[in-house]
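ok so dumb question maybe but i'm new to this and my supervisor (M.) told me to 'just get the structure for Diacylglycerol kinase' and walked off. so i did the thing. is this what she meant?? sequence i used:
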Amino acid sequence: MALGTFLHKRLKGCGYAFKGAVTLLKTEASIQVQAFIAVVMTIAGFYFNITATEWMIQIIAIGLIMSLEGMNTAVEAIADFIHPDFHVKIGHIKDIAAGAVFITAITAVVIGLIIYIPYFKELIFS
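this is what came out, is it supposed to look like this??
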């Protein structure tokens, strides 16, 4: 395969991925909430001047949450497409996907607390 063809296909794939991310942000309330929280946490990071390591951990947590929300949305869409009516097994699959998001969200909250509690303590007690 020629390098030009390879690069063209990769760029085309990036275009589809970007389109998917924009679609998620425009249409899914759960990802909109997560994006808002990500913006708030980013502003907090700048305000408190968190360390490079804290930035990396925060960015990873935000990326995981946003990615998993997207995957959960995809799982739900596929499940609804395959079986539009209520079905116990489809409900179970959707619950598991939502549970994965929940676990990651709780982990992100704990990470946020670990990063920001010392900064809030310093702000309050100084």
